[in-house]
């Protein structure tokens, strides 16, 4: 018994000692904050973990948010805008057909591993992607390469799109020429994607030694893309650590950066997967900023003194109609009745953040190609009733799917949006059968398969080209919409075949008019998503494309 | 004793096989698949079909199951469709966080619950008893995630005493040896890192401890009340043994038998039940990863993690049985 007591006493003494040491001792490890008390680590919270440190293998925003700070593409977008500007290429031009693209490269640029940036490096990257084999040809791995450049040197799957990339030539040290087989609406915008950012040739040689593999029932990403150390770009920050257990990626200022150096030494991206968790972490002072702010939190945070800028409008929210799920939707009068039954102004006024706009076509008005001459379908319940009567569908019953547990930049509070639209449709005499579904994969699967007669979805643009919006939905038959209309498809594809951007703009305007004449669904709104920062932060210019460059941020 | 251990370990085989069949049947009935979760809004019919083919998900469920069994025998649990990393690596990365959280939660529950239950029984009908009984009822009734949110709002956001999320502060740059943040700090002499990890553990573990604490209080109280009226306790007192010896050796030791069983079961359930608490505190353990795996239909992770949790659960219960035999020698005889 005495022995036990003695052990307890020793254990308590030891615990107290550990506590004293722990609280009293100062670590000899590197500290992320300066000894003078000034902060030099900026912590930003996103909603999900990045998938890869190599942006070429990614297609999601959380990955690009991290990699954008470390990798740069040939072209970039102006800070806080959607206009294409020089990135690693100072200037660029193309031939009349839009098949030969010449890039005059920036001089004096170094990669994080000390390698020099030049035309050979650019071609090494494009040829690396073009020659991908095996699992790299899966669209889950190389989505953006396939979207912008088609397939590969040797397609291994008959359904992989035909390659549009032809070659890359280093004409001289600072001039790279990229040739494609056919003009594409995805160019030059595609050259600005972070998925096509330029990596160090030395790093590429390492990448080639490691393979992605499809073993078992998933794709295994190569090791270099899952831990810091190998990847090397030219950006203002270099990736130094990915602590998956603590859900954080750490980046450090790259002192050899060719442009204006980052103002804050360390940048950390952490994952906090709930909106509420991110807001509370900001309020607790544990982070310096976060994305995907709930519209309901914007005013609260502003009132408390936080900096909550809203991004420019670059997305579109719509109500989709699947004609294969409900035959009544094949009648234009029915589609028009639904369009006129929904009070879009009210939705924008009550559900969207400040700056939200009513949409009258499947493209926000900030995109070149937006037409002022599309057919409009103003809110009019009586007219909607009349149209249903004319179509012989006065007792129309329709299923309306909506997602749960999700907020998208274009669709804050989906359930509230649904409830308002349901009430509008019921006022016009339509019986709505609600169907709530979990966002991923249930809801996305159902909408993609065309099994939801009415559903809510949207899109945030990758770059400023109209085809990035209308081409996504209406270039060909798509189960989501379940219609075949040659006039619409031809009008949409007409623009994609033109090499000159200004010629494409006129074609997109006509395409928008054709789409809205046909009315495959109801464009509802475009909204500016908000991003929040701590009171002591001078935030970076916020980007409509959600492409913030954190090297611009500083502490007050 | 050895026979008991061997028998229980052999029982694991049919248990895990049965569980794996049930899991596969359940996953087969779930709508959707990982392809649209990977592609999001960009999913098209052709893209989804290509990804399903690449992942082998276009095969019948029995083919997928057979492939899974073959891999198990090769000690390969497959690859996460979310992260593209081996399931085993993902498990090893996250399991220490959940173990730390669960152990601290059960430690709090036992350290507070056993004395509270004991003294409540000793003072039956008194203010301590009434408080303990009604308090434990509240503890059982309050949803854990709700308690977690309240604790976070008060102690992290408003008072700023504890961190609001994660396992360690950003920039702590702790050396990773075992994956157990507290232990690693002690092993490497980085005591501030250990302390930092402890401060991150307190709020989630208090929230997580609420239900086990309530169960242990009530169970200890009931058990002590039952045991203290037993004949052998009266006999011991009549023999003139010291009151502290009677209480410690005869009352508490015998009253602990059902409590030990409960602690074993509760520890097992904590390992799998920290899903919501981990999500609220963005704590990178297996609970929050399972939640995202369900969203993403990450079948290999769901099957692998649930099988592992089942294995751990069975092993913990085996340990409980062994502990039982130490506390009560009659168990060894039988």
UniProtKB/TrEMBL annotation, chain A:
Top-level taxon? Bacteria
Location within or outside the cell: Cell membrane
Q: Does the keyword Transport apply?
A: yes
Q: Which InterPro entries does the entry mention? A: Peptide/Ni-bd (IPR030678), SBP_5 (IPR039424), SBP_5_CS (IPR023765), SBP_5_dom (IPR000914)
**According to Swiss-Prot or TrEMBL, what is its membrane topology?**
Lipid-anchor
Transmembrane helix recorded as keyword: no
What are the Solute-binding protein family domain coordinates in residue numbering?
83-479
Give UniProt keywords alphabetically. Answer: Signal, Transport
* Pfam families assigned to the protein according to its UniProt record, in alphabetical order: SBP_bac_5 (PF00496)
Family named by the database record: Belongs to the bacterial solute-binding protein 5 family.
Name of the featured protein? ABC transporter substrate-binding protein
Automatic annotation (TrEMBL), chain B:
InterPro entries from the xrefs?
BPD_transp_1_N (IPR045621), MetI-like (IPR000515), MetI-like_sf (IPR035906)
This protein's UniProt keywords? Cell membrane, Membrane, Transmembrane, Transmembrane helix, Transport
Do the record's keywords include Zinc? no
KW Calcium (keyword) present: no
Q: Which domain of life does this protein belong to?
A: Bacteria
Every ABC transmembrane type-1 domain range: 95-324
According to the record, the segments passing through the membrane are 9-27, 101-121, 133-155, 197-217, 257-281, 301-324
The record's section on Pfam families has: BPD_transp_1, BPD_transp_1_N
Topology relative to the membrane, per the entry? Multi-pass membrane protein
Indicate where this protein resides in the cell: Cell membrane
Protein family (similarity comment): Belongs to the binding-protein-dependent transport system permease family.
Identify the PANTHER family for this entry.
DIPEPTIDE TRANSPORT SYSTEM PERMEASE PROTEIN DPPB-RELATED (PTHR43163:SF6)
Q: What is this protein called?
A: ABC transporter permease
Provide the species name. Answer: Streptomyces marokkonensis
């Amino acid at each position: 018994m005495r022995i036990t007591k003695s052990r307890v006493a020793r254990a308590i003494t030891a615990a107290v000692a550990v506590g004293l040491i722990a609280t009293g001792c100062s670590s000899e490890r590197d500290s992320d904050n300066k000894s003078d008390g000034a902060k030099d680590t900026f912590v930003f919270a996103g909603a999900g973990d990045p998938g890869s440190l190599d942006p070429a293998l990614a297609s999601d925003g959380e990955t690009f948010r991290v990699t954008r700070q470390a990798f740069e593409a040939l072209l970039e977008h102006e800070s806080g805008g959607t206009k294409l500007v020089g990135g690693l290429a100072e200037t660029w031009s193309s031939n009349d057909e839009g098949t030969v693209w010449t890039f005059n490269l920036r001089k004096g640029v170094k990669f994080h591993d000390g390698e020099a940036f030049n035309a050979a490096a650019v071609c090494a990257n494009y040829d690396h992607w073009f020659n991908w084999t095996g699992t790299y040809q899966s669209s889950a791995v190389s989505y953006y390469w396939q979207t912008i450049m088609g397939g590969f040197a040797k397609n291994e799957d008959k359904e992989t799109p035909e390659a549009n990339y032809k070659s890359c030539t280093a004409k001289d040290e600072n001039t790279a020429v990229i040739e494609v087989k056919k003009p594409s609406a995805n160019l030059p915008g595609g050259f600005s994607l972070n998925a096509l950012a330029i990596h160090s040739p030395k790093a590429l040689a390492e990448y080639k030694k490691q393979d992605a593999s499809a073993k078992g029932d998933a794709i295994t990403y190569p090791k270099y893309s899952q831990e810091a150390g190998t990847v090397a770009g030219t950006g203002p920050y270099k990736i130094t650590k990915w602590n998956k257990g603590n859900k954080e990626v750490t980046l450090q200022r790259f002192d050899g950066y060719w442009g204006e150096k980052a103002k804050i030494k360390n940048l950390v991206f952490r994952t906090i997967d709930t909106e509420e968790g991110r807001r509370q972490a900001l309020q607790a002072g544990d982070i310096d900023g976060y994305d995907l702010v709930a519209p309901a939190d914007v005013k609260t945070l502003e009132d408390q003194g936080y900096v909550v800028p809203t991004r420019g409008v670059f997305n579109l929210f719509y109500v989709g109609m699947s004609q294969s799920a409900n035959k009544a939707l094949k009648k234009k009068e029915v589609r028009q009745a639904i369009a006129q039954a929904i009070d879009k102004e009210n939705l924008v006024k009550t559900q969207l953040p400040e700056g939200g706009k009513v949409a009258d076509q499947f493209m926000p008005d900030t995109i070149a190609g937006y037409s002022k001459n599309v057919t409009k379908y103003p809110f009019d319940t009586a007219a909607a009733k009349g149209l249903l009567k004319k179509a012989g569908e006065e007792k129309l019953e329709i299923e309306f799917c909506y997602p749960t547990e999700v907020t998208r930049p274009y669709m804050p509070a989906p359930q509230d949006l649904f409830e308002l639209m349901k009430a509008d449709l019921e006022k016009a005499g339509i019986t709505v059968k609600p169907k709530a579904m979990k966002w991923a994969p249930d809801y996305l699967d159902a909408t993609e398969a065309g099994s939801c007669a009415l559903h809510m979805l949207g899109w945030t643009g990758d770059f400023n080209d109209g085809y990035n919006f209308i081409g996504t939905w209406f270039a060909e038959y798509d189960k989501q919409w379940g219609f075949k209309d040659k006039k619409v498809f031809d009008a949409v594809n007409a623009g994609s075949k033109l090499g000159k951007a200004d010629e494409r703009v006129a074609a997109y305007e006509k395409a928008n008019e054709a789409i809205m004449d046909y009315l495959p669904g109801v464009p509802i709104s475009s909204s500016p998503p908000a991003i929040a920062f701590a009171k002591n932060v001078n935030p970076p210019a916020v980007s409509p494309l959600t492409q913030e460059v954190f090297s611009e941020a500083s502490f007050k | 004793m050895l026979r008991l251990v061997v028998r229980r370990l052999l029982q694991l085989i049919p248990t895990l096989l049965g569980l794996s069949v049930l899991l596969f049947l359940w996953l087969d009935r779930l709508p959707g698949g990982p392809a649209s979760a990977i592609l999001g809004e960009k999913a098209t019919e052709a893209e989804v079909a290509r990804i399903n083919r690449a992942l082998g998900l276009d095969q019948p469920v029995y083919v997928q199951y057979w492939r899974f069994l073959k891999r198990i025998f090769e000690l390969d649990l497959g690859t996460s469709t979310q992260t593209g990393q081996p399931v085993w690596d993902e498990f090893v990365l996250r399991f220490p966080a959940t173990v730390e959280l669960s152990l601290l939660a059960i430690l709090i529950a036992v350290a507070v619950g056993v004395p509270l239950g004991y003294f409540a029984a000793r003072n039956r009908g008194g203010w301590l008893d009434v408080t303990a009984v009604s308090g434990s009822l509240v503890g059982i009734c309050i949803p854990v995630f709700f308690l977690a949110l309240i604790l976070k709002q008060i102690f992290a956001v408003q008072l700023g005493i504890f961190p609001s999320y994660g396992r360690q502060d950003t920039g702590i740059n702790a050396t990773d040896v075992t994956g157990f943040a507290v232990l690693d700090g002690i092993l490497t002499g980085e005591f501030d890192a250990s302390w930092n990890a402890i401060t991150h553990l307190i709020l989630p573990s208090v929230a997580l401890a609420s239900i086990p604490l309530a169960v242990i209080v009530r169970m200890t109280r009931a058990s002590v009340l039952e045991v203290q009226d037993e004949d052998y306790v009266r006999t011991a007192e009549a023999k003139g043994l010291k009151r502290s010896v009677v209480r410690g050796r005869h009352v508490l030791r015998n009253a602990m038998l059902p409590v030990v069983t409960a602690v074993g079961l509760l520890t097992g359930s904590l390992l799998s039940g920290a899903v919501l608490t981990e999500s609220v505190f963005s704590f990178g353990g297996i609970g929050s990863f399972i939640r995202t795996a369900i969203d993403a239909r990450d079948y290999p992770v769901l099957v692998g993690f649930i099988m592992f949790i089942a294995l751990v659960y069975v092993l913990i219960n085996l340990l409980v049985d062994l502990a039982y035999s130490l506390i009560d020698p009659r168990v060894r005889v039988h």
